[in-house]
């Protein structure tokens, strides 16, 4: 069950020649694939590109009409290896995944693919997860493209440019026999716009043709001596062919080329931000008409020497805008200018930050510093031109720092001092929360343990209130990252945590099988919540939901035993805190040798609520009786200790003033967002806390008996409350 359905949106994929497509960037990419005659598509979900996999899944009927093979890959490496179909056959293939984490996983397959080259167009669509809003290590795809000499497209973030990049990406790949990487940045994935459609078309060479007429080219296999010739071929044949194609088809764009004697060279993905900054400086309008020359590199790699010479000749200085470090583009441009004896002054990281996303405030400060240096704007003009407040930005030079501080300094925000940072955490009712609650309770008894964390929702346990987790090394690598901490010199065992998505992605072999092979004595907890929840709730092999297009229902416990684990326990309801603590205690103290695996099962509450809320809403509308459980706290019984909050961190637990005038500590309260998972009640008993929690049944469309009984209960409760209020009044001052 994915995070959302695109069943209605995918109908736009049937738009014909000349019709106007209006929608989101992800959907536009799918339409471009259909118009390009793609033969197969594969990938692995991950932000910010997850929705592309969801769209493709919902578009199965349309894909099948054109004979397109679509596959939810087990990992990014699996997806990348799929492109092998384009090595010997004129089949256009596309894969997609998150970058750079996904690119790292797929690196072996991509390096081999780039070495031997392709006959059919091979397009790698990566969701460039860099900068604000990112969830991974701060790296870029650029380095990988350079390392393997895969051409890198970075189109302007509008639908027409993105769609055109998909189509020309296939053509560039075929013209240079090289795979092409198309990076789609976070905002480009979700940008809305329109473009004129072309006809969808089927591949002229079908997959069945490849199977019926198998081809083999020994020179494409990465084995000596062919592998040595591949490197030579890249430089002598493929690179020049790519440069010719890029120039002939004008993939890079020049705007206002002769408008001034200074200019800006930027990657296509930064175009909207640069135009906005120029607009705030009064040097461009909202339609993108710039008074400053722009060279927009929709192809971020390779750079085109002739185009840079054309842009730089006659200019006093240029500013290169390139997010992140190292500054690959700036170094390359410096080399071009030096070799071609061009005297244009080069600026880049001297006026812009070395690292971090170039948002509008950052670019505005850098452009102002550059244009002031060449006398294009006066320092005071920036204030009158900028009608909106732009946050102050720290610049590399002290002079520019002071300048930005004076111009853009904003009064301190009192909220920043009064409101503390709120760390991300588990959803209300998340079945993973009781696992870490049990670990915290057991910590009181057995002491602290080293915990190797993994990528996924469970990684939130590293943050307050649990503070559990020492390292995280990659998706499905939780168990592997504890491999060095396996010794008989102590009775302490390391604990590893991984999700079911990470288990099927990488963990079964890299973690579990490896621990069996090396006779590990550590404990691995596999959180089985039925989906790859962190990426949007997509199905995996162990999903309990029936999927018409995939084979699900494969048991993790059987897979673990299949690779040789002897000590395996399964808890089918993670909210059973007593059972969780008992099983964890056994796993950490048993004398039985070998790796220990605990499979903790309960469905992702977020996905469950998406399904159940629709049913509940329909039942209520139909007048059916619906019962919803919710927990509460008796304020008279609550002691104000708040251990329940510290040991669960549930967002539905909060505090309110103590009704007892003799007690000053606030009491715990349960908000209406409670989904009735029961952890707080379980926690009260397991941790021997106060018995202040109660469970209430909220009934919609009650039956006759319940309607008759309700006023009697209400009067009785009201009488008790009024009596209690009178008793309290005698203590009031």
From TrEMBL:
It comes from the Bacteria. GO terms for biological process: small molecule metabolic process. InterPro entries: 4Fe4S_Fe-S-bd, HACL1-like, THDP-binding, TPP_enzyme_TPP-bd. It holds the Pfam family TPP_enzyme_C. GO terms for molecular function: catalytic activity; metal ion binding; thiamine pyrophosphate binding. Keywords: Metal-binding, Pyruvate. Residues 629-660 form the 4Fe-4S ferredoxin-type domain. Signal peptide: none annotated. This is Indolepyruvate ferredoxin oxidoreductase. It comes from Xenorhabdus kozodoii.
């Amino acid at each position: 069950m994915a995070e959302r359905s695109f069943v209605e949106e995918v109908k736009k994929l049937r738009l014909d020649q000349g019709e106007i497509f209006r929608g989101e960037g992800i959907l536009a990419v799918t339409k471009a694939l259909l118009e390009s005659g793609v033969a197969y598509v594969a990938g692995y979900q991950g932000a910010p590109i997850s929705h592309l996999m969801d769209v493709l899944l919902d578009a199965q009927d349309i894909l099948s009409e054109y004979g397109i093979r679509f596959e939810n890959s087990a990992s990014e490496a699996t997806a990348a290896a799929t492109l092998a179909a384009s090595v010997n056959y004129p089949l256009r293939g596309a894969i997609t995944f998150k970058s750079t984490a996904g690119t790292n996983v797929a690196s072996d397959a991509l390096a081999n693919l780039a070495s031997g080259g392709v006959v059919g167009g091979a397009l790698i669509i990566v969701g460039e997860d860099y900068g604000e809003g990112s969830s991974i290590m701060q790296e870029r795809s650029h380095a990988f493209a350079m390392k393997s000499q895969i051409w890198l497209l970075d189109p302007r973030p509008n639908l027409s440019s993105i769609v055109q990049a998909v189509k020309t990406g296939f053509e560039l790949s075929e013209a240079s026999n090289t795979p092409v990487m198309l990076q789609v940045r976070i905002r480009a994935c979700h940008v809305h716009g329109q473009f004129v459609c072309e006809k969808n078309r089927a591949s002229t060479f079908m997959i069945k043709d490849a199977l019926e007429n198998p081809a083999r080219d020994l020179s494409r296999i990465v084995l000596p001596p062919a592998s040595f010739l591949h490197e030579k071929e890249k430089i002598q044949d493929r690179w020049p062919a790519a440069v010719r194609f890029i120039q002939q088809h004008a993939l890079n764009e020049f705007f206002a080329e002769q408008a001034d004697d200074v200019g800006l060279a930027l990657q296509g993905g930064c175009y909207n931000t640069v135009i906005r900054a120029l607009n705030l400086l009064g040097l461009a309008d909202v339609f993108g008409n710039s008074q400053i020359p722009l060279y927009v590199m929709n192809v971020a790699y390779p750079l085109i020497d002739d185009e840079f010479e054309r842009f730089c000749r006659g200019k006093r200085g240029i500013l290169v805008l390139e997010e992140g470090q190292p500054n690959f583009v700036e170094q390359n441009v410096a080399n071009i200018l030096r070799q071609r004896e061009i005297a244009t002054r080069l600026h880049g990281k001297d006026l812009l930050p070395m690292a971090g996303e170039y948002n509008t405030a950052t670019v505005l400060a850098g452009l102002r510093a550059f244009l002031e240096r060449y006398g294009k704007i006066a320092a005071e003009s920036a204030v009158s031109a900028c009608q909106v407040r732009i946050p102050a930005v720290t610049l590399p030079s002290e002079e520019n720092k002071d300048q930005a501080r004076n111009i853009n300094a904003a009064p301190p925000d009192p909220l920043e001092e009064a409101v503390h940072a709120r760390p991300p955490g588990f959803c209300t009712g998340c079945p993973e929360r009781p696992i870490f609650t049990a670990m915290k309770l057991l910590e009181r008894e057995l002491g602290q343990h080293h915990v190797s964390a993994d990528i996924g929702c469970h990684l939130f346990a590293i943050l307050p209130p649990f503070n559990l987790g020492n390292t995280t090394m990659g998706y499905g690598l939780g168990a592997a990252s504890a491999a060095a901490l396996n010794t008989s010199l102590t009775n302490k065992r390391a604990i590893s945590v991984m999700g079911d998505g990470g288990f099927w992605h990488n963990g079964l072999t890299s973690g579990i099988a490896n621990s069996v092979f090396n006779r590990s004595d550590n404990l691995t907890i596999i959180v089985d919540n039925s989906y790859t929840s962190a990426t949007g709730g997509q199905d995996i092999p162990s999903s309990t939901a029936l999927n018409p297009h995939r084979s699900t229902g494969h048991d993790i416990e059987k897979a673990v035993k299949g690779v040789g684990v002897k000590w395996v326990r399964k808890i089918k309801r993670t909210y059973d805190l007593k059972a969780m603590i008992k099983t964890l205690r056994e796993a950490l103290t048993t004398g039985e040798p070998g790796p220990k695996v605990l499979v903790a099962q309960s469905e992702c509450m977020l996905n469950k609520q998406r399904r159940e809320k629709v049913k509940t809403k329909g039942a209520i509308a139909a007048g059916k009786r619906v019962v919803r459980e919710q927990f509460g706290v008796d304020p008279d019984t609550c002691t104000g200790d708040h251990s329940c909050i510290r040991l669960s961190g549930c967002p539905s637990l909060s505090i309110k003033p103590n009704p007892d005038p003799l007690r000053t500590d606030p009491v715990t309260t349960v908000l209406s967002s409670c989904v009735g998972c029961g952890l707080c009640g379980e926690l009260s008993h397991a941790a021997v806390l106060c018995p202040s929690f109660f469970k209430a049944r909220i009934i919609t469309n009650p039956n006759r008996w319940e309607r008759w009984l309700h006023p009697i209960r209400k009067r009785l409760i009201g009488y008790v409350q009024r009596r209690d209020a009178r008793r309290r009044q005698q203590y009031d001052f």
